[in-house]
């Protein structure tokens, strides 16, 4: 291991790391919004939309992100839809993440006993108020562990973006290995970069989970 | 509209080649799944031992393998380990090793979780009615553990199958790579090949994974209580 080489590589990885984090962040926020909408549609069984989201969720959960990206990046231009690799990455991540987030929220919603909803209504709350003040706070607190697992899963999935020529961490490592044969250094920096990104996130969620467990009921 | 892109699928042996590629994907997944299920059960049992040294070692292994993207692990194995130890690994072998290491960690954690979720009074009640340790394990603990474990383990299988798509990136000729070869070969004759080939591969993965994940969902529902 040559530390001179590593020092030279740091700015490259820093840049790629920032790009990875940025895409992951946009993708995750998008996934949360998409997942939230889908879970509400599924939970309240809104006609037509209910079936469409069902098909979407099964398609997205049972196919790999790499193939989804290849389809977006290499397939769609053939019918005139040209996406940049960055847009592709974000669209792909939201497509994948939306379904996972949706399932996480939905299992949270379904874990709430019906009696809670009924009590809310019998107290004279409107349906919207029941959702807002009774269902959502509990559902969110229940789905935190699944949610946290999904966030980490999605950050990890960003490593696939190098395949559609996004200059992220994986891509940088691949280029450095190919150009300079400093394989050890390039891979070492790759591992470090992902640890730097993922360890704090993972630690934060563990902490959050412990805090939220007190907010739960009974168990 | 000159040449319909879908024709490329049925030109020559293209579709058969894709299916062969899919078969390699399934073979690699199958081998890794079998290995990681068996090793994962052992790993899970080891993780329930209350020894600080074992705890730290298993924890570090689990966290590292889990937190690293699988593609990074594949690169480490395929480029890093081979160079560091001056050995030659084919992409297939590297993939199976990585997926086994990763699957063992995931499976180990599932087994640990399932074992630890069995309330202590189940053991005690078993003892109180005079069962031997083996009987308690066979008739009380095992059936309950399996019910919690099997749906999650099946889900892990679909995740492993999906992740095998990454091995095209370390030059294993499986379904994705075959697709790329077909697209490359028909670039000039059928410009829209990419759309059809990637679309086909997309549904191939879906057809393989969907029944498995349905099975998991059904078992989960059936065994809820």
In short, what is this structure?
Chain B: GO terms for molecular function: transmembrane transporter activity. The complex is a heterodimer of chains A (219) and B (225). Chain A is an all-alpha fold.
Helicity range of chain A: over 70%
Rg over C-alpha atoms of chain B, rounded to the nearest angstrom: 22 Å
Instruction: Summarize the largest interface: chains and residue counts.
Output: A-B, 39 and 38 residues
Largest sheet of chain B: none
CATH architecture designation of chain A: Orthogonal Bundle
What is the string of SSEs of chain A from the N terminus onward?
A: HHHHHHHH
* Quaternary status: heterodimer
User: How big is the Rg of chain A?
Assistant: 21 Å
CATH topology of chain B: MetI-like fold
Count of alpha/pi helices of chain A: 8
Properties at a glance:
heterodimer, A: 219 residues, mainly alpha, MetI-like fold, flat, B: 225 residues, 9 helices, transmembrane helix (chain A), transmembrane (chain A), transport (chain A), ArtM/GltK/GlnP/TcyL/YhdX-like (chain A), membrane (chain A)
Explain this structure.
Chain A is 80% helix and 0% strand. With 219 residues, chain A is mainly α. Chain A has a single domain, classed as MetI-like (MetI-like fold). Chain A is flat, with a radius of gyration of 21 Å. The mean pLDDT of chain A is 89. With 225 residues, chain B is an all-alpha fold. Chain B has one domain (5-224): MetI-like fold (Orthogonal Bundle). In chain B, 78% of the residues lie in helices and 0% in strands. Chain B contains nine helices and no strands. Chain B has helices at residues 7-10, 14-47, 52-67, 70-84, 91-116, 120-128, 133-163, 175-185, 193-222. In chain B, helix 6 packs antiparallel against helix 7 (133-163). At the A-B interface, helix 2, helix 3, helix 6, helix 7 and helix 8 of A face helix 4, helix 7 and helix 9 of B.
């Amino acid at each position: 291991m040559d530390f001179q080489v590593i020092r030279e590589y740091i700015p490259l990885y820093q840049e790629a790391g920032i790009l990875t984090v940025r895409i992951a962040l946009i993708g995750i926020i998008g996934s949360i919004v998409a997942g939230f909408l889908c879970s509400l549609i599924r939970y309240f069984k809104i006609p037509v939309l209910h079936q469409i989201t069902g098909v979407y969720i099964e398609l997205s959960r049972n196919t790999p992100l790499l193939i989804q990206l290849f389809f977006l990046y290499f397939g769609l231009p053939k019918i005139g839809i040209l996406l940049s690799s960055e847009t592709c990455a974000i669209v792909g991540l939201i497509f994948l993440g939306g379904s996972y987030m949706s399932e996480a929220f939905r299992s949270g919603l379904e874990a709430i006993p019906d009696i809670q909803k009924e009590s809310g209504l019998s107290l004279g709350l409107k349906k919207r108020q029941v959702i807002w003040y009774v269902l959502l706070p509990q559902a969110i607190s229940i789905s935190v562990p699944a949610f946290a697992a999904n966030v980490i899963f999605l950050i990890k999935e960003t490593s696939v973006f190098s395949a559609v020529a996004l200059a992220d961490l994986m891509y940088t490592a691949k280029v450095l290995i190919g150009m300079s044969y400093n394989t050890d250094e390039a891979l070492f920096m790759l591992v470090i970069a992902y640890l730097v990104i993922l360890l704090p996130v993972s630690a934060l969620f563990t902490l959050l989970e412990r805090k939220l467990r007190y907010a739960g009921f009974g168990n | 509209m000159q040449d319909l892109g879908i024709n490329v699928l049925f030109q020559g042996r293209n579709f058969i080649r894709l299916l062969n590629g899919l078969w390699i994907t399934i073979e690699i997944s199958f081998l890794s799944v079998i290995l990681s299920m068996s090793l994962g059960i052992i790993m899970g049992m080891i993780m329930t031992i209350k020894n600080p040294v074992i705890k730290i070692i298993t924890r570090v292994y689990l966290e590292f393998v889990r937190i690293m993207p699988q593609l990074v692990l594949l690169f480490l194995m395929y480029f890093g380990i081979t160079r560091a130890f001056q050995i030659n690994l084919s992409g297939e072998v590297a993939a199976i090793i990585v997926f086994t290491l990763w699957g063992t960690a995931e499976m180990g954690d599932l087994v640990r979780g399932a074992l630890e979720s069995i309330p202590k009074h189940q053991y005690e009640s078993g003892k109180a009615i005079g069962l031997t340790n083996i009987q308690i394990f066979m008739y009380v603990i095992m059936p309950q553990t399996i019910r919690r474990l099997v749906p999650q383990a099946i889900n892990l299988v679909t995740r492993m199958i999906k992740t095998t798509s990454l091995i095209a990136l370390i030059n294993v000729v499986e379904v994705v790579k075959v697709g790329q070869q077909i697209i490359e070969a028909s670039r000039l004759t059928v410009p829209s090949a990419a759309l059809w080939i990637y679309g086909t591969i997309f549904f191939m993965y879906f057809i393989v994974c969907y029944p498995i994940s349905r099975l998991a969902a059904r078992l989960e529902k059936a065994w809820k209580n």
